[in-house]
């Protein structure tokens, strides 16, 4: 009798902080010289704040909310990271997002560390007034844990320039008589926000994609001009990415949001999709398009796939179905380590989040500089500076990949000599290259400063 063996389902740990740890631990294999205590310090957040607070909602009921603020690392500058409002926010998600901010700021070589915040709430069931009260109460609870030179929030999922205005106003009420504008970035332009910040995350994605393609990352695809693109998530990062890539001659064949996706092989007009989402709450139903699921968006045949929603979208159970030639991570943490391995084996490069979506924090840094100087730069100046930074960071990551892949034997020999394991080190992907660059920069500054006291 023949026994048919079926493979057991792949069990994958989707805890975002475990994912961030696994990525870090993989990268550190290629940096054998650092002491274990330093590595342990770099992997863990410096400070974790959890706060419980009530508000009276629009219908008169008192409701309690949980908020988190995590400061991961401040070796290279004040903590920097967005605030997310979502029902699925967890402390481990915020810990992961804070760590990714540390590595992202280091990849970009901007003088910030990493932080992140979140409130467990569903903005879809709350009024604007509720959200304003949640924001004010959350910021008041954080007290001096945030500040222009200690930890600087910004927008993230379901928070906007308007939310940042409330953050500023609350902090300013609590610290009167001084210039508090640099305490938060992503503010409205007429109250200290930077021109170009709203589009910066997506523009940064475009700039690093263009640079990587111009350096020959993909055979036969030298530019986004003429490329077919699918975008998962149609908020700040995703919708503006669709608009900017289309402006550069790409054909947007699919976009999606939390309610589902739309597809058109001949191309979707992103401006029409934005207007349709504004009118109806979703991209689904845009005339001239076919409805598809979010899973189908990820599996479409296209040149570039841009995940721009949430974590853990491309996993062990679906990475094999990805048919895109290149992935550009506008979202934080959309690809799991197991999926990374599958994509690498399939020769599908992933421009990782800590590079691809770093345009947002880079222009946040420019906003902070403008606020400290009481200046406001033109949008052209902001975009020119962003282009330079994204180009330089993309080059550094691509160069690091080449350097490491060309010195595997030496790294192996050092690992063996230092007793760091004799299992072979293998060729690295772009995520690992970006991590190596970032971890090295943060570790070196930590050592230059000297371990205190
Ligand atoms: P947003 O709230 O503006 O938009 C999120 C979008 O994702 C919405 O369209 C929502 O409908 C969609 N979405 C949610 N769940 C989905 C699902 N399961 N499938 C498909 N779509 C889904 O948020 P944002 O600011 O655009 O952030 C999106 C991602 O980009 C996040 O990972 C965030 O951390 C990252 N990011 C944002 C910025 C920024 O400046 N806003 C900067 C860097 C990284």
Distance between the termini: 71 Å
Helical proportion, percent range: 40-55%
Give the count of helical stretches. Answer: 15
The count of strands amounts to: 12
Q: What Rg do the Cα atoms give? A: 22 Å
As residue ranges, the low-confidence spans are: 1-7
The major pleated sheet works out as: 7 strands, mixed
What gross morphology would you assign? globular
Topology order in helix (H) and strand (E) letters: HHEEEHEHEHHEHEEHEHEEHEHHHHH
How are the strands of the largest sheet arranged?
A: 9-8-7-6-10-11-12
How much strand? 15-25%
What does this entry look like structurally?
The strands form two sheets. This protein has a seven-stranded mixed beta sheet. A five-stranded mixed beta sheet has the order 1-2-4-3-5. The protein has 453 residues and is α/β, with parallel strands linked by helices. The model is unreliable at 1-7 (pLDDT under 50). It has 15 helices and twelve strands. The relative contact order is 0.14. The protein has helices at 16-28, 36-43, 91-108, 128-142, 161-174, 197-214, 236-247, 270-280, 294-298, 337-345, 353-356, 359-373, 379-405, 408-417, 430-449, and strands spanning 47-56, 62-73, 79-86, 114-120, 151-155, 228-232, 251-257, 260-263, 290-292, 304-307, 326-328, 350-351. The N and C termini lie far apart (71 Å). Helix 1 runs parallel beside helix 3 and helix 4 crosses helix 5. The structure holds nicotinamide-adenine-dinucleotide. Nicotinamide-adenine-dinucleotide binds at residues 155-158, 201, 232-238, 256-258, 294, 308-310, 330-332, 357, 360.
């Amino acid at each position: 009798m023949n026994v048919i063996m079926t493979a057991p389902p792949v069990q994958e740990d989707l805890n975002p902080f475990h994912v961030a740890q696994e990525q870090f631990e993989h990268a550190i294999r290629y940096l054998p010289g650092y002491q274990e205590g330093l590595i342990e310090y770099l992997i863990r957040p410096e400070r974790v704040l959890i706060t419980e607070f009530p508000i009276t909602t629009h219908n008169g009921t008192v409701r309690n909310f949980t908020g988190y603020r995590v400061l991961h690392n401040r070796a290279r500058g004040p903590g920097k990271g967005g605030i997310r409002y979502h029902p699925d926010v967890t402390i481990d998600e915020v810990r992961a997002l804070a760590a990714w901010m540390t590595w992202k700021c280091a990849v970009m070589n901007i003088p910030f560390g990493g932080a992140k915040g979140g409130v467990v709430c569903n903005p879809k069931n709350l009024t604007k007034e509720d959200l304003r009260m949640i924001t004010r109460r959350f910021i008041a609870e954080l007290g001096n844990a945030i500040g222009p030179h200690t930890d600087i929030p910004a927008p993230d999922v379901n928070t906007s320039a308007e939310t940042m205005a409330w953050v500023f106003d609350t902090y300013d009420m609590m610290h009167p008589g001084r210039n508090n504008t640099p305490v938060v970035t992503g503010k409205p332009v007429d109250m200290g926000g930077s021109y170009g910040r709203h589009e910066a995350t997506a523009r940064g994605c475009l700039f690093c994609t263009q640079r990587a393609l111009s350096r020959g990352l993909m055979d036969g695809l030298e530019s986004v001009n003429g490329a077919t693109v699918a975008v998962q998530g149609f908020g700040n990062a995703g919708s503006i990415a669709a608009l900017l890539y289309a402006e550069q001659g790409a054909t947007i064949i699919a976009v999606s949001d939390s309610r589902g996706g739309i597809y058109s092989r001949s191309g979707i007009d992103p401006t029409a999709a934005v207007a349709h989402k504004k009118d109806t709450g979703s991209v689904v139903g845009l005339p001239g398009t076919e409805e598809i699921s979010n899973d189908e968006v990820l599996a479409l045949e296209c040149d570039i796939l841009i995940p721009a929603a949430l974590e853990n979208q491309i996993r062990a159970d679906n990475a094999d179905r990805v048919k895109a030639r290149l992935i550009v991570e506008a979202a934080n943490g959309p690809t799991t380590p197991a999926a990374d391995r599958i994509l690498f084996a399939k020769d599908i490069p992933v421009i990782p989040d800590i590079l691809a979506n770093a345009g947002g924090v880079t222009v946040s840094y420019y906003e902070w500089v403008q606020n400290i100087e009481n200046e406001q730069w033109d949008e052209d100046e902001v975009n020119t500076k962003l282009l330079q930074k994204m180009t330089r960071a993309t080059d550094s990551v691509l160069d690091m990949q080449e350097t490491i892949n060309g010195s595997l034997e030496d790294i192996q020999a050092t690992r063996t000599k230092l007793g760091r394991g004799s299992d072979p080190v293998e060729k690295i992907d772009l995520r690992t290259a970006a991590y190596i660059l970032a971890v090295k920069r943060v570790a070196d500054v930590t050592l230059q400063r000297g371990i205190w006291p």
